[in-house]
Amino acid sequence: MRVTFPAVLDAFACSDQRCACRNSLRAAAAVSAATTDKFPFRDAELAMIAGADPARAADKASAVQAADLGDRFGDYPVVAIATPDGVELSFASLCPTVQALFARNVEPIALARAEGGWRVGLRVFHHADKLREVRLSPRRTLPWAEFAAFRESVLDLVAEPTLPLLARLARVAGLVDLLVSERSAPGLVPPLTARGFLAFRGFVESRVASAEPESLAEFAARTHAFWGPNVGLQSSEVPGLLDALGADWRGQLRTWVVPVERRLGPVLEAWLGARLFATPLDRDLSIARGYSELFEGFAVALRFAAALGEVRQAPVDENGIAAALALGEHLVASEGAPLPAFELPRDLHDKGPRMADLDMTLESIC
Protein backbone atom coordinates (compact mmCIF):
# COMPACT_ATOMS: atom_id res chain seq x y z
CA MET A 1 0.00 0.00 0.00
CA ARG A 2 1.41 3.37 -1.03
CA VAL A 3 1.17 6.09 1.62
CA THR A 4 1.89 9.70 0.58
CA PHE A 5 2.39 12.65 2.92
CA PRO A 6 4.33 15.96 3.19
CA ALA A 7 8.01 15.16 3.65
CA VAL A 8 8.41 17.86 6.32
CA LEU A 9 6.16 15.77 8.59
CA ASP A 10 8.09 12.53 8.10
CA ALA A 11 9.32 12.72 11.70
CA PHE A 12 5.83 13.23 13.13
CA ALA A 13 4.97 11.31 16.28
CA CYS A 14 2.20 12.36 18.62
CA SER A 15 2.19 9.41 20.96
CA ASP A 16 2.54 11.53 24.11
CA GLN A 17 -0.87 11.37 25.77
CA ARG A 18 -0.09 14.68 27.50
CA CYS A 19 0.09 16.54 24.19
CA ALA A 20 -2.35 19.46 24.07
CA CYS A 21 -4.26 17.99 21.15
CA ARG A 22 -4.78 14.64 22.92
CA ASN A 23 -5.81 16.39 26.14
CA SER A 24 -8.34 18.48 24.24
CA LEU A 25 -9.83 15.46 22.50
CA ARG A 26 -10.20 13.69 25.84
CA ALA A 27 -11.91 16.75 27.32
CA ALA A 28 -14.32 16.91 24.38
CA ALA A 29 -15.06 13.20 24.63
CA ALA A 30 -15.71 13.48 28.37
CA VAL A 31 -18.18 16.33 27.96
CA SER A 32 -20.22 14.86 25.12
CA ALA A 33 -20.17 11.71 23.00
CA ALA A 34 -22.27 13.26 20.22
CA THR A 35 -20.67 13.69 16.83
CA THR A 36 -21.00 16.98 14.96
CA ASP A 37 -20.27 16.00 11.38
CA LYS A 38 -20.57 13.03 9.05
CA PHE A 39 -16.90 13.31 8.13
CA PRO A 40 -14.91 11.89 11.09
CA PHE A 41 -11.87 14.11 10.79
CA ARG A 42 -13.96 17.26 10.65
CA ASP A 43 -15.69 16.08 13.79
CA ALA A 44 -12.32 15.47 15.46
CA GLU A 45 -11.06 18.93 14.46
CA LEU A 46 -14.05 20.69 15.98
CA ALA A 47 -13.84 18.50 19.08
CA MET A 48 -10.16 19.30 19.56
CA ILE A 49 -10.89 23.02 19.43
CA ALA A 50 -13.91 22.72 21.71
CA GLY A 51 -11.99 20.61 24.21
CA ALA A 52 -9.24 23.22 24.46
CA ASP A 53 -11.68 25.68 26.02
CA PRO A 54 -10.69 26.08 29.69
CA ALA A 55 -14.40 26.38 30.50
CA ARG A 56 -14.97 22.76 29.51
CA ALA A 57 -14.83 20.02 32.12
CA ALA A 58 -11.13 19.27 31.80
CA ASP A 59 -11.11 17.36 35.06
CA LYS A 60 -13.37 14.74 33.45
CA ALA A 61 -10.91 14.15 30.63
CA SER A 62 -8.79 11.80 32.71
CA ALA A 63 -11.67 9.32 32.73
CA VAL A 64 -11.50 8.90 28.96
CA GLN A 65 -9.21 6.04 28.02
CA ALA A 66 -6.95 6.06 24.96
CA ALA A 67 -9.04 3.27 23.44
CA ASP A 68 -12.21 5.35 23.79
CA LEU A 69 -10.45 8.30 22.20
CA GLY A 70 -9.39 6.17 19.25
CA ASP A 71 -12.86 4.75 18.76
CA ARG A 72 -14.33 8.20 18.41
CA PHE A 73 -11.60 10.23 16.75
CA GLY A 74 -9.40 7.65 15.09
CA ASP A 75 -5.77 8.66 14.83
CA TYR A 76 -6.35 12.41 14.77
CA PRO A 77 -4.32 14.72 14.48
CA VAL A 78 -3.27 12.41 11.63
CA VAL A 79 -5.86 12.19 8.82
CA ALA A 80 -5.65 9.09 6.60
CA ILE A 81 -7.83 8.95 3.49
CA ALA A 82 -7.95 6.28 0.79
CA THR A 83 -7.63 7.62 -2.76
CA PRO A 84 -7.34 5.94 -6.18
CA ASP A 85 -3.55 6.43 -5.88
CA GLY A 86 -3.19 5.00 -2.38
CA VAL A 87 -3.54 6.41 1.12
CA GLU A 88 -2.84 10.10 1.75
CA LEU A 89 -1.96 11.56 5.13
CA SER A 90 -2.49 15.08 6.35
CA PHE A 91 -1.93 16.56 9.79
CA ALA A 92 -3.73 19.09 12.00
CA SER A 93 -1.47 22.12 12.25
CA LEU A 94 -2.88 23.08 15.67
CA CYS A 95 -1.00 20.09 17.10
CA PRO A 96 2.13 21.54 18.78
CA THR A 97 4.26 18.75 17.31
CA VAL A 98 3.21 19.66 13.78
CA GLN A 99 3.96 23.33 14.41
CA ALA A 100 7.40 22.44 15.73
CA LEU A 101 8.18 20.44 12.59
CA PHE A 102 7.07 23.32 10.37
CA ALA A 103 9.25 25.71 12.39
CA ARG A 104 12.32 23.50 11.88
CA ASN A 105 11.83 23.06 8.14
CA VAL A 106 14.90 23.62 5.95
CA GLU A 107 13.97 21.52 2.92
CA PRO A 108 12.11 22.53 -0.24
CA ILE A 109 8.50 21.44 -0.60
CA ALA A 110 8.43 17.70 -1.26
CA LEU A 111 6.18 14.69 -0.79
CA ALA A 112 7.31 11.48 0.87
CA ARG A 113 6.03 8.08 -0.24
CA ALA A 114 6.15 4.81 1.61
CA GLU A 115 5.26 1.74 -0.43
CA GLY A 116 4.70 -0.63 2.48
CA GLY A 117 2.54 1.58 4.67
CA TRP A 118 3.34 4.17 7.32
CA ARG A 119 5.42 3.58 10.44
CA VAL A 120 2.40 2.82 12.61
CA GLY A 121 -1.03 1.40 11.89
CA LEU A 122 -3.71 3.91 10.95
CA ARG A 123 -7.44 3.71 10.46
CA VAL A 124 -8.08 4.80 6.89
CA PHE A 125 -11.27 6.56 5.84
CA HIS A 126 -12.83 5.25 2.61
CA HIS A 127 -15.24 7.48 0.69
CA ALA A 128 -18.35 5.73 -0.58
CA ASP A 129 -17.45 6.50 -4.22
CA LYS A 130 -13.76 5.68 -3.59
CA LEU A 131 -12.93 9.30 -4.53
CA ARG A 132 -13.38 8.67 -8.22
CA GLU A 133 -14.36 12.34 -8.36
CA VAL A 134 -13.56 15.40 -6.24
CA ARG A 135 -16.09 18.17 -5.76
CA LEU A 136 -15.10 21.25 -7.75
CA SER A 137 -18.02 23.37 -6.52
CA PRO A 138 -21.34 22.53 -4.84
CA ARG A 139 -22.79 21.35 -8.17
CA ARG A 140 -19.80 20.12 -10.17
CA THR A 141 -17.11 17.48 -9.77
CA LEU A 142 -13.67 16.80 -11.22
CA PRO A 143 -12.36 13.31 -12.09
CA TRP A 144 -9.65 12.16 -9.70
CA ALA A 145 -6.98 12.04 -12.42
CA GLU A 146 -7.65 15.69 -13.32
CA PHE A 147 -7.59 16.73 -9.68
CA ALA A 148 -4.32 14.90 -9.07
CA ALA A 149 -2.70 16.59 -12.09
CA PHE A 150 -4.03 19.99 -10.98
CA ARG A 151 -2.68 19.50 -7.46
CA GLU A 152 0.72 18.56 -8.82
CA SER A 153 0.79 21.79 -10.82
CA VAL A 154 -0.16 23.78 -7.73
CA LEU A 155 2.61 22.20 -5.64
CA ASP A 156 5.12 22.93 -8.40
CA LEU A 157 4.02 26.58 -8.49
CA VAL A 158 4.40 27.18 -4.77
CA ALA A 159 7.79 25.43 -4.74
CA GLU A 160 9.20 27.73 -7.45
CA PRO A 161 12.30 29.30 -5.79
CA THR A 162 12.77 32.18 -8.25
CA LEU A 163 9.60 34.02 -7.23
CA PRO A 164 8.69 35.68 -3.92
CA LEU A 165 6.12 33.77 -1.90
CA LEU A 166 3.31 36.24 -2.60
CA ALA A 167 3.90 35.91 -6.35
CA ARG A 168 3.80 32.12 -6.11
CA LEU A 169 0.50 32.30 -4.26
CA ALA A 170 -0.82 34.64 -6.93
CA ARG A 171 -0.07 32.02 -9.58
CA VAL A 172 -1.83 29.36 -7.50
CA ALA A 173 -4.86 31.61 -7.03
CA GLY A 174 -5.01 32.33 -10.75
CA LEU A 175 -4.87 28.64 -11.60
CA VAL A 176 -7.65 27.86 -9.11
CA ASP A 177 -9.83 30.59 -10.61
CA LEU A 178 -9.34 29.17 -14.10
CA LEU A 179 -10.10 25.65 -12.90
CA VAL A 180 -13.36 26.70 -11.24
CA SER A 181 -14.51 29.03 -14.02
CA GLU A 182 -13.63 26.67 -16.90
CA ARG A 183 -14.72 23.55 -14.95
CA SER A 184 -11.61 21.65 -16.00
CA ALA A 185 -7.87 21.87 -15.40
CA PRO A 186 -6.11 24.19 -17.90
CA GLY A 187 -3.78 22.38 -20.28
CA LEU A 188 -0.99 24.86 -19.59
CA VAL A 189 -0.32 26.83 -16.43
CA PRO A 190 -0.83 30.51 -17.35
CA PRO A 191 2.10 32.87 -16.72
CA LEU A 192 1.98 35.42 -13.95
CA THR A 193 1.00 38.86 -15.26
CA ALA A 194 1.30 42.23 -13.57
CA ARG A 195 -2.47 42.68 -13.53
CA GLY A 196 -2.98 39.21 -12.13
CA PHE A 197 -0.48 39.79 -9.34
CA LEU A 198 -1.86 43.21 -8.44
CA ALA A 199 -5.36 41.74 -8.27
CA PHE A 200 -4.21 39.01 -5.90
CA ARG A 201 -2.17 41.42 -3.79
CA GLY A 202 -5.22 43.63 -3.41
CA PHE A 203 -7.32 40.60 -2.53
CA VAL A 204 -4.93 39.51 0.24
CA GLU A 205 -4.70 43.05 1.58
CA SER A 206 -8.48 43.30 1.78
CA ARG A 207 -8.72 39.96 3.61
CA VAL A 208 -6.01 40.91 6.12
CA ALA A 209 -7.83 44.20 6.77
CA SER A 210 -11.16 42.38 7.18
CA ALA A 211 -9.98 40.08 9.97
CA GLU A 212 -12.04 40.63 13.14
CA PRO A 213 -9.72 41.46 16.08
CA GLU A 214 -12.20 40.19 18.68
CA SER A 215 -12.73 36.84 16.97
CA LEU A 216 -9.03 36.19 16.51
CA ALA A 217 -8.16 37.25 20.05
CA GLU A 218 -10.88 35.01 21.50
CA PHE A 219 -9.77 32.05 19.40
CA ALA A 220 -6.11 32.59 20.31
CA ALA A 221 -6.96 32.70 24.01
CA ARG A 222 -9.16 29.60 23.81
CA THR A 223 -6.49 27.58 22.00
CA HIS A 224 -3.46 28.94 23.87
CA ALA A 225 -2.41 25.45 25.01
CA PHE A 226 -1.73 24.47 21.38
CA TRP A 227 0.59 27.31 20.40
CA GLY A 228 1.56 29.30 23.49
CA PRO A 229 4.30 26.99 24.83
CA ASN A 230 6.03 26.80 21.41
CA VAL A 231 6.03 30.59 21.13
CA GLY A 232 6.89 31.23 24.77
CA LEU A 233 3.81 33.40 25.37
CA GLN A 234 2.21 33.00 28.78
CA SER A 235 -1.57 32.86 29.08
CA SER A 236 -1.42 36.08 31.10
CA GLU A 237 0.04 37.82 28.03
CA VAL A 238 -2.67 36.69 25.64
CA PRO A 239 -5.14 39.50 26.52
CA GLY A 240 -2.60 41.93 25.10
CA LEU A 241 -3.27 40.42 21.69
CA LEU A 242 -6.68 42.08 21.52
CA ASP A 243 -5.15 45.53 21.85
CA ALA A 244 -2.48 44.65 19.29
CA LEU A 245 -5.01 43.20 16.85
CA GLY A 246 -7.09 46.36 17.05
CA ALA A 247 -4.13 48.62 16.33
CA ASP A 248 -2.32 49.50 13.07
CA TRP A 249 -1.72 46.09 11.52
CA ARG A 250 0.15 47.60 8.56
CA GLY A 251 2.73 49.19 10.81
CA GLN A 252 3.04 46.04 12.88
CA LEU A 253 3.49 43.84 9.82
CA ARG A 254 6.09 46.21 8.41
CA THR A 255 7.97 46.30 11.72
CA TRP A 256 7.82 42.73 12.97
CA VAL A 257 7.28 40.46 9.93
CA VAL A 258 8.51 42.13 6.73
CA PRO A 259 12.19 42.42 7.82
CA VAL A 260 12.34 38.65 8.49
CA GLU A 261 10.25 37.46 5.52
CA ARG A 262 13.20 35.68 3.93
CA ARG A 263 14.09 33.89 7.16
CA LEU A 264 10.47 32.80 7.65
CA GLY A 265 10.25 31.53 4.07
CA PRO A 266 10.93 27.82 4.80
CA VAL A 267 8.19 27.74 7.47
CA LEU A 268 5.67 29.42 5.17
CA GLU A 269 6.60 26.99 2.40
CA ALA A 270 6.26 23.98 4.72
CA TRP A 271 2.78 25.02 5.82
CA LEU A 272 1.69 25.87 2.29
CA GLY A 273 3.01 22.60 0.90
CA ALA A 274 1.13 20.61 3.53
CA ARG A 275 -2.07 22.60 3.02
CA LEU A 276 -1.96 22.48 -0.77
CA PHE A 277 -1.48 18.71 -0.62
CA ALA A 278 -4.35 18.21 1.84
CA THR A 279 -6.85 20.72 0.42
CA PRO A 280 -9.76 20.03 0.07
CA LEU A 281 -9.79 16.31 0.99
CA ASP A 282 -8.88 16.57 4.67
CA ARG A 283 -12.01 18.62 5.45
CA ASP A 284 -14.24 17.05 2.80
CA LEU A 285 -14.81 20.37 1.01
CA SER A 286 -15.18 21.40 -2.60
CA ILE A 287 -12.02 22.63 -4.32
CA ALA A 288 -13.48 26.14 -4.55
CA ARG A 289 -14.28 26.28 -0.83
CA GLY A 290 -11.03 24.63 0.21
CA TYR A 291 -8.90 27.22 -1.56
CA SER A 292 -11.03 30.10 -0.28
CA GLU A 293 -10.31 28.84 3.24
CA LEU A 294 -6.61 28.46 2.47
CA PHE A 295 -6.21 32.06 1.25
CA GLU A 296 -8.34 33.41 4.08
CA GLY A 297 -6.33 31.45 6.64
CA PHE A 298 -3.10 32.85 5.21
CA ALA A 299 -4.44 36.40 5.46
CA VAL A 300 -5.63 35.91 9.04
CA ALA A 301 -2.24 34.40 9.91
CA LEU A 302 -0.47 37.55 8.74
CA ARG A 303 -2.72 39.62 10.97
CA PHE A 304 -2.01 37.39 13.93
CA ALA A 305 1.75 37.29 13.26
CA ALA A 306 1.87 41.09 13.19
CA ALA A 307 0.03 41.30 16.51
CA LEU A 308 2.22 38.62 18.07
CA GLY A 309 5.31 40.64 17.14
CA GLU A 310 3.73 43.71 18.68
CA VAL A 311 2.98 41.93 21.95
CA ARG A 312 6.50 40.50 22.14
CA GLN A 313 8.10 43.68 20.78
CA ALA A 314 10.38 41.49 18.69
CA PRO A 315 10.52 40.22 15.11
CA VAL A 316 8.41 37.12 14.58
CA ASP A 317 10.50 33.94 14.62
CA GLU A 318 9.92 30.51 13.09
CA ASN A 319 7.79 29.28 16.01
CA GLY A 320 5.72 32.45 15.91
CA ILE A 321 4.85 32.21 12.23
CA ALA A 322 4.05 28.48 12.56
CA ALA A 323 1.63 29.32 15.39
CA ALA A 324 0.09 32.17 13.39
CA LEU A 325 -0.48 29.93 10.37
CA ALA A 326 -2.10 27.24 12.53
CA LEU A 327 -4.38 29.78 14.20
CA GLY A 328 -5.41 31.36 10.91
CA GLU A 329 -6.14 28.01 9.29
CA HIS A 330 -8.19 26.56 12.14
CA LEU A 331 -10.07 29.75 12.98
CA VAL A 332 -11.34 30.01 9.41
CA ALA A 333 -12.14 26.30 9.20
CA SER A 334 -14.01 26.22 12.52
CA GLU A 335 -16.13 29.28 11.74
CA GLY A 336 -17.27 28.00 8.35
CA ALA A 337 -18.40 31.50 7.37
CA PRO A 338 -19.09 32.57 3.76
CA LEU A 339 -15.85 33.65 2.07
CA PRO A 340 -15.07 35.60 -1.10
CA ALA A 341 -13.30 33.75 -3.91
CA PHE A 342 -10.38 35.28 -5.76
CA GLU A 343 -11.15 36.05 -9.40
CA LEU A 344 -8.61 37.03 -12.03
CA PRO A 345 -9.33 40.31 -13.81
CA ARG A 346 -10.60 39.54 -17.30
CA ASP A 347 -8.52 42.25 -18.98
CA LEU A 348 -5.18 40.54 -18.38
CA HIS A 349 -3.97 41.32 -21.89
CA ASP A 350 -4.47 45.07 -21.52
CA LYS A 351 -1.40 47.18 -20.98
CA GLY A 352 -0.21 47.10 -17.39
CA PRO A 353 2.89 47.93 -15.33
CA ARG A 354 6.13 46.07 -15.92
CA MET A 355 6.69 43.01 -13.77
CA ALA A 356 10.15 44.30 -12.87
CA ASP A 357 8.55 47.38 -11.29
CA LEU A 358 6.29 45.44 -8.92
CA ASP A 359 6.99 44.95 -5.25
CA MET A 360 6.09 41.32 -4.59
CA THR A 361 7.17 41.14 -0.95
CA LEU A 362 4.81 41.05 2.00
CA GLU A 363 5.56 44.74 2.54
CA SER A 364 3.58 45.49 -0.61
CA ILE A 365 0.29 44.68 1.15
CA CYS A 366 1.06 47.16 3.92
Textual characterization of the structure:
This protein has 366 residues and is α+β, with helices and mostly antiparallel strands. 50% of the residues lie in helices and 8% in strands. The protein is built from 14 helices and 6 strands. The chain has helices at residues 20-31, 40-51, 66-73, 96-103, 144-158, 165-182, 194-210, 213-222, 224-231, 240-245, 249-256, 261-278, 287-312, 318-335, and strands spanning 3-6, 78-83, 86-91, 111-114, 133-137, 140-143. A hairpin with a 2-residue loop joins strand 2 and strand 3. It is globular. The model has no long low-confidence stretch (mean pLDDT 90).
Describe the SSE topology.
Elements: E1 3-6, H1 20-31, H2 40-51, H3 66-73, E2 78-83, E3 86-91, H4 96-103, E4 111-114, E5 133-137, E6 140-143, H5 144-158, H6 165-182, H7 194-210, H8 213-222, H9 224-231, H10 240-245, H11 249-256, H12 261-278, H13 287-312, H14 318-335
Parallel strand pairs: 1-3
Antiparallel strand pairs: 1-4, 2-3, 5-6
Helix pairs in contact: 1-2, 4-14, 5-12, 6-7, 6-13, 7-13, 9-14, 11-13, 12-14, 13-14
Descriptive key words:
14 helices, single chain, alpha+beta, 366 residues
Number of helices: 14
Which percent band covers the strand fraction? 5-15%
Query: What is the H-and-E element order?
Result: EHHHEEHEEEHHHHHHHHHH
Strand order of the largest sheet: 2-3-1-4
Q: Structural class, judged by helices and strands?
A: alpha+beta
What form results from the Cα inertia axes? globular
Average per-residue pLDDT, rounded, comes to: 90
Biggest pleated sheet: 4 strands, mixed
Number of strands: 6
* Distance separating the two termini: 47 Å
Low-confidence stretches: none
Compute the CA-based radius of gyration.
20 Å
Proportion of helical residues: 40-55%
